[in-house]
Amino acid sequence: MNDNEKDREIKELLRQAIAPVKDTELRRDLWPQMLRKLDEPSASMRNVPWFDWALAAILSAVLLLFPGTIPALLYHL
Amino acid sequence: MRLLEQFAAGDPEAFEALFRQHQKEVYCWIVRIVRDGGIAEDLTVETFWRIYKSRARFRPDGNFRAWARRIATNAALDHLRSSRHETELPEDLPGAPREDPALRGEQRKQLKEAFYQLPPKYRLVATLALIEEETYESIAQAAGISAGLVKIRVFRAVRMLRKKLSPLRVEAVAK
User: Fold this and answer.
1) Does residue A22 have a pLDDT over 80?
2) Given this model, what pLDDT does residue A74 score?
């Protein structure tokens, strides 16, 4: 079996294993939920916990010290 | 057109009108990506929240539907990224299962696992192209990438699945 046939086989198996979503109907009005979201106080920089800042600092340091990891990181994003 | 101008100018009533016009369509698109009704509802609200926040950047002569779909796709992709390591396999989602008697039990589970472990950007295009059977062009527009890149990502997703499933001897299963 060549590569193209194997690819086709995988696609077919995938379609058999995972069905397309048939029930895509929205059953309720989401406007009340939207209104609640609009009423929420907006998140500001001050609301970010200190450990998130620490994590961001560590990540930045790692990327600066080991720039070779950037392509690997982008690949996995 | 007037409604879009009012929305871009920050009129809350215009935003509500657009929300009510488009919420079903946005939900329908998102649920096909995330495959969970509850999550899709939350992401629909998140999508409109992003739309509301960026209203000043919207050009009233532009296509609101396409813009909303693009934002919805990004919101769904962000969800796939954030939930990547905690995704539980949805147990037969709403929809008619396309069962094959030869594909069952452990093999079916492993195929699903492999699929849900795909990197999010590959899972997004593979879900839409291979399961939901959307065209490359519509996926490209929604994801803000070229149709060629969609094709490449689908190809790579299939190759990743093949690699992960090699112990399954898929050729034998497919028979």
Assistant:
1) yes
2) 85
CB-based contact, B13 to chain A, within 8 Å: no
Question: What is the reported pLDDT for B151?
Answer: 96
Mutate to test the interface with B, among A3, A9, A10 (most CBs of B within 10 A): A10
Determine the average pLDDT of the residues in A46-71.
87
Verify whether the Cβ–Cβ distance B31 to A21 is below 8 Å: yes
Q: How far is CA B174 from CA A29, A47, B8, B126, in A?
A: 43, 53, 53, 20
Q: What is the DSSP letter of B127?
A: I
What's the pLDDT score for residue B105?
A: 64
CA distance A69 to chain B (A): 17
Q: How far is B33 from chain A (nearest CA, A)?
A: 9
For B28, the token pair is: 């329908």
Sign of CA dihedral B153, B29, A10, B116: positive
Q: Per the CB < 8 Å rule, is B112 touching A17?
A: yes
Angstroms from A35 CA to nearest CA on chain B: 9
Please state, as a whole number, how many other Cβ atoms lie within 10 Å of the Cβ of residue A11. Answer: 18
Mean pLDDT by 10 residues, chain B (175 residues): 88 95 97 96 97 91 94 97 67 51 66 91 96 96 96 95 72 48
Domains parsed from chain B with CATH numbers: 2-82 (1.10.1740.10), 105-174 (1.10.10.10)
* pTM of the entire predicted model: 0.77
Question: Could you tell me if B41 lies within 8 Å of chain A, comparing CB atoms?
Answer: yes
